[in-house]
Amino acid sequence: MNSSFNNTKPIYLQIIEKIEIEIISGARSPGERIESVRELAAKLKVNPNTIQRALSELETKKLVETERTNGRFVTKNEAKLKKLKEKYFKEKTKEYILEMEKIGIKITEIRREHEN
Predict the structure, then answer these.
(1) Left if phi > 0, otherwise alpha if psi is -120 to 50, otherwise beta: which for 65?
(2) Are residues 63 and 94 in the same domain?
(3) For residue 94, what are the domain limits?
(4) What angle do the packed helices 48-60 and 37-44 form, to 10 degrees?
(5) What integer best gives the mean pLDDT of the chain?
(6) In terms of domains, do 38 and 9 share one?
(7) Are residues 66 and 83 in the same domain?
(8) Residue of 52, 83, 84, 102 with fewest CB within 10 Å of its CB?
(9) Could you tell me the CATH number of the domain that includes residue 35?
(10) Which parts of the chain fold into alpha helices (H)?
(11) Considering its fold, how many domains does the chain have in total?
(12) How far apart are CA 100 and CA 94, in angstroms?
């Protein structure tokens, strides 16, 4: 996991996005153990509270599950993982189309270029 962050949004949100991308890309497998808060904080060079906040949010989203004494794990819920991937795809596609429209490229041009 890359530890470079930008100033456009809070670091914990960027960490959430990085972990989500790792999950949907397969870099983190369903059921895989996630590093401890301290390990991730050291690896990413951020405050442990920032990591805790990110992991808690991922738990709220049910992408990460806590086993009482064993730590946190990527969910094994395939439907949840598929839904996350679809949501990410739709969001990024919409962002792309809006950016292209800003520079005067119409969706019909995008489709035509994609077909070639």
Answers:
(1) beta
(2) no
(3) 77-116
(4) 120
(5) 93
(6) yes
(7) no
(8) 102
(9) 1.10.10.10
(10) 11-25, 37-44, 48-60, 78-102, 107-115
(11) 2
(12) 10
